[in-house]
Amino acid sequence: MNKSELVSQTSRQIPELSRDEVESVIDKAILNIERSLREGENVLLTRFGTFQITDRVATRRRNPRDGNIIDIPAKKKVTFRPSSILSSKI
Q1: Considering the entire predicted model, what is its pTM?
Q2: Which of 23, 37, 60, 87 has an alpha carbon 20 to 30 Å from 46's alpha carbon atom?
Q3: Would you list the domain boundaries of the chain?
């Protein structure tokens, strides 16, 4: 499911809101999740799961094409852990 499909399905389930209003609400929710993650906060959505930032350490890897060692820099990564409720429904 992509964002457009999510907006369409949600607007059908909530007929008192227009498609544009539903899209605006979804956009604002996504922006708030992004802001919280940027600030280093975990985002817990009850019955759905948790988004959190994890640190990836710098590593050295071998390029399979030429055998040269390359340095992979450290970075932050967003991870998602589904709730037990969501996991049991899948």
Answers
A1: 0.75
A2: 23
A3: 1-39, 42-90
Q: 48 forms bridges with which residues in the sheet? A: none
State in words which class domain 42-90 has: few secondary structures
Sort strands 75-82 and 69-72 into parallel, antiparallel or unpaired: unpaired
Residue 69 has phi, psi (to 5 degrees) of: -80, 130
- Considering only CA atoms, which of 40, 22, 23, 43 is closest in space to residue 32? 43
What is the maximal distance between C-alpha atoms in the chain?
61
- 3-class secondary structure, 85: helix
> Partners of 55 in the beta sheet?
76
Yes or no: say if 83 and 46 are a contact pair by the CB < 8 Å rule: yes
In tens, the pLDDT along 19-73 reads: 999 999 999 999 999 999 999 999 999 999 999 999 999 999 999 899 899 999 9
